[in-house]
## 1
Amino acid sequence: MAHSPSFPQLPPPPQALLNGASLFLDFDGTLTPIADTPDGVTVDRDLLDLLIRLRDQLDGRLAIVSGRSVATLRDLGLSAFLLAGTHGLEFARPGCPVEAPERPASIDRAEAAFHAFADGKPGLLVERKSISVGLHFRGAPQWGEEAGDLAADLAARHALQLQPGKMLFELRPGGADKGSAVHALMSRGPMQDGTPLFIGDDVTDEEGFAAAADLGGNGILVGTPRETRAGFSLEQVAAVRHYLRQGVPA
Ligand SMILES: O=P(O)(O)OC[C@H]1O[C@H](O[C@H]2O[C@H](CO)[C@@H](O)[C@H](O)[C@H]2O)[C@H](O)[C@@H](O)[C@@H]1O
C-alpha cells in the first residue's frame, strides 16, 4: 500500500489494548471493505461471529459507531449490538427502539436539490437516510468538486452539518459527531466500565479518536497515514479483523 510521504506510519496496536477495552467500531472501511455503492456491502457470517464473541468477551462493551442510520445497520444484521448511527445522532440498544431526533424538513429540501443535481449524471447516487442524506460520487468522480460546492451551499442555506466522507458528501443536523457518541456511550450502560478504544478509517472517525484519547483511551486508524488523533494504525479491513480475532478465544 502506498503511504503519504508527509505522515509517518503509526505503530500497530498492541494486543493488550483489547483487555478491558470499551470497543468502538466504525463500520464502512473498518469492518467491511469499501464497495462501489452503499448497498454493495454485507455483514458476512465470520464478521458477525467475531463481533458476537468480542462483545461477550468484553462483557457487552462493544458498540458500532457509524455514519449509516441505525435502521440500515440493523437491516445489515447488526441488531445484536449497541449502535450509534448517523455520526452520533442516533442510538439504539439491542431490542430497543431507536433514540433519534426528528428528520428535519431541511433534509428533504437538500435531498431534492441533490436529486436535481444528480439527474442525468450517471454514476452519481443520492442516499436517503433516516435523518440525513448523502450524495455519492464514487461512480462519477468528475463531479466531486461540484458536488462538494453544492453540498457546502446547501449546508449554509439550511443550517445543516456538512460531513465529507469517502467519495461522499453528507448533510445532517448538527449537534453531534462520533466524539459526542463516544462520550454519551461512556457515560451509561456497559461501555462506562472499560477504557475506550476507537477503530476507524474515515475523517468522521477523528472525533471518535479524540474522544477516546480524552477519556484515557486510544484510537486505531485504518488505512493510509494522515494527520490523526489515533495512536496506532492497521493497514486495512483484513488487518482489523485479524487483530480483533486475536482478542477472542477460538
Ligand atoms: O461511519 P461509517 O460506518 O464508515 O459510514 C460512513 C459512510 O459509509 C457509507 O459510504 C461509504 O461506503 C460505501 C460502501 O462501501 C461506499 O460506496 C461509499 O463511497 C463510502 O462513502 C455509507 O453509504 C454512508 O451512509 C456512511 O455515512
## 2
Amino acid sequence: MQKVFRSCYELDRRCYASYGLTEDILMEHAARGMAAYIQEHFGQGSSILIVSGVGNNGADGIVLARQLHGEYDVRLHIPFGVRSEMAKLQLERAEALGVNIVDTMEDADIIVDAIFGAGLSREIDEETQFILHKLNSFTGYKIACDIPTGVGENGCLMPMAFNADVTITMGAYKEALYLDESKDNIGKVIRVDLGVSSKMYETKSDTYLLEASDIKLPSRDSLSTHKGSFGHAAVFCGEKEGAGIIAGMAASRFGAGLTTLVVHEKISPPAWLMHSTVVPSNASAIAIGMGLGEHFESEFLQQYVIGSHLPIVLDADSFHHSEILSVLEQKERDIVITPHPKEFAVLWEHVTGEQISVAQVQQNRFEMVRKFNSRYPHVTLLLKGANMLIVQEEQLYINPLGTSKLSKGGSGDVLSGLVVSLLAQGYSGIEAAIQGSLALTLAAQHYSGASYAMLPIDLIDALELLEGR
Ligand SMILES: NC(=O)C1=CN([C@@H]2O[C@H](COP(=O)(O)OP(=O)(O)OC[C@H]3O[C@@H](n4cnc5c(N)ncnc54)[C@H](O)[C@@H]3O)[C@@H](O)[C@H]2O)[C@@H](O)CC1
C-alpha cells in the first residue's frame, strides 16, 4: 500500500526547509529517475524527442536531455521558450553542453512529454493541443514527466492529454493519476525519489494506493475446522435470479463455509448452493440488491434486512429502494455499499435530494466519495470504476488494478459475492471491501483468455489461482 497525495508542492517545500535540499537537487533526481527508466529499457543511441514547457516540468525535461546527451540521440524541443528560473538555468547548462535543440518535432524511439505537470491550472490552448495531437500520433514509446500534459490537478482532461505509455511521477503518488477519465492517458505509473527516500519525503496521508501485494486471502490454516467455522453468507436472489446466483457462487468459492440464496420462489441454483425463503438463523452476513427488482414484500425486507443486525452488502437495486437505504443510518452494523457511478448518482439523490449526472460523479469521484463519507463515515463505500475507490472513516483507498476484462454484466455481482463472503468470515466492512476488490481485479488479471471473452464464471474460477501467486 502506498500513500497518495493531492499535491506534492508542500512535500517539496519540506525538503528545502527541513532537509536543506534545493530545487536543483530535486530536479536532478527527477530527471535521473526518467533517465534510469530509459537506460533500463532502451539501448544506447536510441532517438529521444523531449518536448519541454515553460515551467519546472519543462526544466525536468531539459535536465533529462542533458543527462542523456552523448549516450542517446537526444532532440530537445522548447515550443514556448522557458519562464521559470530553474528552466532558464537548466537551459543554459544544456546549451553549454551542446544538447541538440530542435525547431520541429519528428517521431523518435522515445517521446518525452515535459510540457505541463503539476502546475497545469487551466485548459490547455489550441497550440498545445496541436502539439499533443502530433505527439500522440507518433509511434515512439511515450513517457510523461510527473503528470501527462492535459491532465488537470483533479485528474480531469483539460480538455485532452498526452497519451503516455508510462508516467514517471516525482516524489509521491498523486490523486490526479487515478481518475477513471484519464486512465488511458496515464498508462503505467512509476514513482521516483527526489533525493530522499519516500519515507522521508512523504508526510501523513489519508489516501492510499492498493497494490497486488496487499491481498490477504481467507485463511484455512487451522486443521480443526468445519463448515460452520467459515461463516454463512445469505445472498438475496430477486427478479433477475442470475445475478444472485453469480454472487452466491462467488461467495462460496471465496471461502464462505455455507452460502444460502434467499429466494421468493423455487429456482435451480448449482447443487452446492442452498436456497431458502427466509434468511437462515445462523447466517453471518447478507448481500442484497443484485437483480433484486421488486420481488420481496416490505414486511419481509423489514424483518430480514432492515431489522437485522448482520453485516450487509448493498448493491444494484438496493439504491432505488429508499426503505433499504434506511440501513445506512445504522451505526452499529458493518455496512458495505458497492454502487457503480449511475447507482451512486441515484443514491446521492436519495440521501441529499440533489440531482447529479453520471458525468459529474465521474469527474469528481474523489470529491463525491469524500462528501458521502462525511455524511456516513461508518459506512464503507466502494465506488466501482476503472479505478475503484473505497472509503470509510475518512480513509480512502484506490484500487488501480482493474482491467477492461471486467467491463461485462455479472462482474459486479461477483464483487458483491466476494465482499459478503469475507463479511461472513468475520472481516470488517473496510477489510472486506478492500480484499474483495483486490481479489476481483487480480482474478481478472489471472484470466488468460481473450480480453473480451471473460465470463463471470471464469472470474469465479480464477479465484482459485490467487493462492500462492
Ligand atoms: N521543487 C520543484 O518545483 C520541483 C518540480 N518538479 C517538476 O515541476 C513540475 C511543476 O512545475 P511548475 O509548478 O513550474 O508547473 P508546470 O511546469 O507544470 O507549469 C508551468 C506554469 O504554466 C502555467 N500554466 C498552467 N496552466 C497553463 C495552461 N493551461 N496554459 C499555459 N500556461 C499554464 C502556470 O503558471 C504554471 O506554473 C512538476 O510537475 C515536476 O515535473 C520536479 O522537478 C520536482 C521538484
## 3
Amino acid sequence: MADVRDREISIEQDHLDGVYRRLEEKIQEAEFLMRDAARRGQVGTPGALAERDAQVFRAGIHLNRLNNEFEDFLFGRIDLLLGKDGEKGPDGAYTSVEPADDAVHPDGTADIAETLHIGRIGVLDADYTPLVIDWRAPAAAPFYRSTPVEPGRVVRRRVIRSKGRQVLGVEDDLMRPELTARLAGEPLAVVGDGALMAALGQARSHTMRDIVASIQAEQDRVIRAPAASVTLVEGGPGTGKTAVALHRAAYLLYQDRRRYAGGILIVSPTPLLVSYTEGVLPSLGEEGQVAIRALGSLVDGAEATAYDPPAAARVKGSARMVQVLRRAARGALDLGAAPPARAGRDEEAGEAPEGQLDLGLPAAPAGPPERLRVVAFGRRVELDAAELGRVRRDALSGTAPVNLLRPRARRLLLDALWARSGGAGRHQDPELAAELRSGFDEDILSEDSFTAFLDAWWPELTPRAVLAAMADEKRLARWSRKVLGQGEARRVARSLSRLDPAGEGPLSVHDVALLDELEAVLGTPPRPRRKREADPLDHLTGLQELMPVREETQWERAERLAQERTEYTHVIVDEAQDLTPMQWRMVGRRGRQATWTVVGDPAQSSWSDPDEAAAAREEALGNRPRRRFTLTVNYRNPAEIAELASRVLALAMPGSPSPRAVRSTGVEPRFVVAGEPMGETVRAEAARLLETVDGTVGVVVAMERREQAARWLAGLGERVVALGSLEAKGLEYDATVVVSPAEVADESPAGLRVLYVALTRATQQLTVVSGRRDQPDADGVPDLLRDDVPPELLGE
Ligand SMILES: Nc1ncnc2c1ncn2[C@@H]1O[C@H](COP(=O)(O)OP(=O)(O)OP(=O)(O)O)[C@@H](O)[C@H]1O
C-alpha cells in the first residue's frame, strides 16, 4: 500500500514539476518580449508595449504566487470516462457531463479518457492542453459535484496535498467503484480515504482557511449559482455559509471580471469576523478585488467601537427610527448654525456667531435667526419670525433631502421679500416687472449678510450633528412623539450622549446605520468632483491585465466605485439573520441595482423582532426573483457538541431542524460548576484546553463580562481569546469554554439563540462552566442544556 501511495505521489510530483517548468518558460518568454520591446524602443505602439509589460507582470505574479502564497496550489485531480460528444471548452477540457454510451465496456471495464488537474488558477501548456484547470472553470465542477450516486463521467476523484513545489500526499475517492477502470492500460490505483475528514480535523488558527480542495456538492451548487437576482442560502451553524459566500465572490469574479471587479461588497456583522475571513480571498487569488466590510464600517469616516445596551440597541435598530430621523433632520434646522463646538446639545447654550449680530439676531441663544432684514431699492425690507416660519414650512413641503432644499428655501425667501417690498405693483408691463424683479434678487443675493443669514437659518446639516442633537432627551421626546415610547426615547438619547455636539465620539454599530439614514434624509449638496491624478506607473504595472479595451482599468474602476461609495454590482450579506431593519436599509442602499447573495441562519438571530427585520430585508432586496438553497451538513462541530447545541435550538426555535454533524470525536462536552471566584475556574478550564488542543481556544461570556474575562485569561498566551457572546458569531475555535449559559441567555430577548451560537463555535472540545444563575444537576449540566429541561425553568 505504501508503495502505491509513493508511486502515486511521485506521479503527481512529476505533474507539478511540469507545471512549474511551464510557468518558468512563460516568465522567460515574457522577459524576452520585454527586452525585445526595449531594444526596439519607439517602434512598438504604446498599446503593444503596455500589453508586453502586462504579460511580464502577469507571469511574474503567477510565479510569485506559486512560490510564496499558494501552499497547495495544485489540489485536485479527476479521472474521467469518455464524454457523450467530443466537444471541448475554452479550457481545453471535454464539456460533456455524461459519459458516452459505450464508455463502459460490456464486461464492466472502462478506460480513462481524460485526466484533469484542478488548482487555484489555470495553466495551459504550450500546445494549449490544460495542465491545471482553474477551480472555478466549468470543467472543474465535477470535481466538487460528483458523488457515487451521481458520478457523471468521474471515476476517481483525488485530493492532492502539496506545499510549495512538493507534493506531500494524495487521497482518493472512487465514484464508480463498480468499474474496473484502466489508465493508459494500467489498473487505476486508489489511495487513502477521507480527504474531507483530514481537512476538518486540522487545528484552527485565528484566520479562516479556504475550502477550495474540499467544497461539497451542496455547497458547490450555491457557489456556482447564476448571479442574476437574489440567491438566499440558509443553513445551521458550521454548514459552510461563510466559506460558500467567500468562494462565491471569487467565482463571480472569475465568471465576469469586468462586471464584478471592485463591485462586490461582502457585509459581515463584526470586525472580528472580517479579520477572520479576509485572508480567504487572497488565497483564492482575488486580492483587493472585493470589499469586505463590517456593518459598523459601511459608512465612510465612521467606525463602530462602542456597544449599546440591548434595550437601546433594540430601538435604534427598529424601522420606526426612519420617521424619528426625518423629523430630527428637519427639526435640527431650528437649532441654527452654531459653530460645531456648540451646535445642538443644549438649546440654551452659547452665543450666536459674531457675523450674525448685525442681522438683528438675538445675541443669545444660538437658535436660528428670528428676523431677516435687507435693504433693497434703498428701502429696508424685513421678514419677522412668523413669516420666516411660514417660508420654512413651505420649503420643507418639498420632498428632496433637507440640504438640497436650500435653493428652494432661498427662492421662497426672495419671493417673500419681494412681496414685502411692494415691488410687484410697480410695473404693469410684464417685461419691465420681470427685469425689476431680477434686479431685486441680484441686489439681495450680492449682500454678504443675506448669505450669512441663509447659512444660519438653513444651515447645511451633517448626519453627525443631527445625531448628536438627538442626545437631548427633551428634544428627542419631541421628535419621536407617537413613534417611540418615552422610555425608549430616553434610552436612545442617553446612548447618544457619548457624542460631542459635532457628533464626534465613539459610535455603536447601530449609530452607523442611523448616520447612513441621515445622510439619505439630509442629502449631500453637489461638490466639484476631485479628479484622480494620473499615476505614471498605471500603464506600467500591467494591472489592466484583463481589460484589453482601454476605457477604464479594473484598478480605476475599483477606485472609482470605492470613492463614489454608493453602489455595488453584487452584494453578499453574511450572517444576514442579524441585520436590523435599519441595517437592511443601509445595506440596501449599496445595492439598489445589484444582484445579491444572502446567507444566514434564523436560529442564530440575535435580533428580537425577526418579522420586522424580514420586512426590511424584503424591501432592500426589491422584487427580484429569489433562488433558495439550504445547507444541511455541519462541518464544524463534532456530533457530541452538535447534539448538546440542538437541545438549546429546541428551546430557542422549537421544530427547527439541526444540521447533521459530519464527524464525531468521541469526546463529550465537559461540565464544570464554577467555584468562587468564578474567574479561577474559567482560567483553569481554558488552560486545560490549551493543553489538549493544538490550535485556538475561545472563552465565550455574556457581553457585560467581556473585559473581566480578558483579565481572567491574562498571560495564557495568544492562542486563547475572550469574547462577548455577540462577538462570537461566525468564528470558530478548536475548543471553547462557554461561561454561564443562563447569563448569556438572560442578556437579551434573543438570548437563547445567542447561546446556541456560543455553543456551536468549537471544532473539537467544549467545556461549559455554570455560574450562579445556572442550576446544574448532579453531573454539572446546567438546566438550559439538559435534554429534559423543564419549561418553567426558562424564567419566562
Ligand atoms: N467543504 C468543506 N471542506 C472543508 N471544510 C469545510 C467545508 N465546508 C465548511 N468547512 C469548514 O467548516 C467550518 C464552518 O464553516 P463556516 O464558518 O463557513 O460555517 P457557517 O455556516 O458560516 O457557520 P456559522 O453559521 O456558525 O457562522 C469552517 O472551518 C469551514 O472551513
